[in-house]
What we know:
The chain is of the alpha+beta class. The protein has 2 domains: 2-238, Alpha-Beta Complex (Amidase signature (AS) enzymes), CATH 3.90.1300.10; 261-471, Alpha-Beta Complex (Amidase signature (AS) enzymes), CATH 3.90.1300.10. 34% of the residues lie in helices and 14% in strands. The chain is built from 14 helices and 15 strands. It has helices at residues 10-18, 24-38, 50-65, 108-115, 158-165, 182-188, 228-238, 279-294, 309-323, 330-337, 344-352, 356-376, 423-427, 457-471; strands at residues 45-48, 77-81, 119-124, 136-137, 141-142, 172-176, 191-194, 220-225, 265-268, 298-300, 382-386, 405-408, 411-414, 432-439, 445-451. Strands 6-8-7-14-15-11-9-10 form an 8-stranded mixed sheet. Strand 12 (405-408) and strand 13 (411-414) form a beta hairpin.
Amino acid sequence: MGDDLHYQAAAELAGRIRAKEVSSREVLDALLDRVATLDGPINSVVTIDAERARSEAAAADEAVAHGEPIGPLHGVPITIKDSWQTAGMRTTSGAPELAEFVPEIDAWPVTALRQAGAVIFGKTNLPIYAGDFQSYNEVFGSTNNPFDASRTPGGSSGGSAAALACGFTPFELGSDIGGSIRLPAHMSGVMGHKPSYGIVPAHGQIPGPPGTLTQADLAVAGPMARSAADLELGLTVLAGPDRWNKPAWRLELPPPRSADLAGYRIGAWLDDDRCPVEPEVGTLLERAAAALSAEGARVDTQVRPAFSLEKAADTFFTLLHAALSGGFPLEALERMAGDDGDTPLALTRRRTAIRHREWLSANERRLQMRLRWEELFADWDAVLLPVMPCPAIPHDHTEPIAGRTVRFSGRDWPYWDAATWMAPAGLCYLPATVVPVGVTALGLPVGIQIVGPYLHDRTTIDIAGYLTALVGGCPRPAT
């Protein structure tokens, strides 16, 4: 029974549990056994509460047996990224000072998943305080890429992506401020959706410290899975008003912009001198665009917003590092502000320590680019972009992070440059869905971003479903 459960979609498992074809307990035991058997060399699921999960699964099965009302994820066992507080289950965010922290309350998106019926049985690894696009920390060590253990699965939702790729969980809750859903989805060959900013309440993530109420600029919570249907289901469960707007605010996301693939108008911005993609990656991206065109979509590879990738990246990284500055003491920020060097590390320090008036200027640039996107989307429904210029990168845990380099397209680049393609959607609060589009000659997955207009999340997920059907879905590692 277990072998046919590991790679089933969350929606499919929920339907089978509802129909009494399989029990929640059976699914849970199959997943727990698979983690115990195969996760050792991957190290993706770092905390497990099997006893509590078995009790919740048994209760879910009793509810089905008695015909009680059930939610759309009823009885489905899942894991959760370790930055999200889970009541009664250790939540560390990879930080030694939180190694034994057990929250008393759930983060808001965790509550939403529980209310939908999900059974949370474990937590997945990440970098300390979700602050890198590799996944390692002093508490749990490194998570390895399921397709090549010498490489990272990505980050910060790297354990989430690796667990999905290995069939340890059918669904994950990720977070994305600088690409933390999209980058690991690409590097590990799974699907992820970065929602439009502000539509998924994200109270209860660490960082900041437990109890923090601030919702950081750029930061979102979103679903990760192996099917577009599960991304759609996850978005429906997670989206809604936050604690401040709940008394009056309601969310009704628009339906997909087209009833079929032939009705979609899709731009394709697949390369740029600011962050050139490697030839093998570019070929897979071009094939994906051509597949959509061959099935009737209108695809134009010359479509671009009226701003440069260079400008978007500069503004994005300025706002990103400013958003991450809250954990630094004032003295450190003052030292950073005075670093007048010309290295990538010096630039990162200055961005981290910008004054509020500088932030206001960067924010205005952001809003001008949001308007340019709005103008483009008057004529186009979505734009395809790379996720990274290369496949998963080798592990590199040298410090400081900003002093690292990444080799792609024939030369060494500053570390953060590998995340340049996160900028156009992340900066402008747009929805972006990542879909695997193939593997390289070395067997490493490659993903593509589908970016849409603000609040048109259902359009990017809908196109993701069509594209997944055309390119064959998520690759499976040789586990």
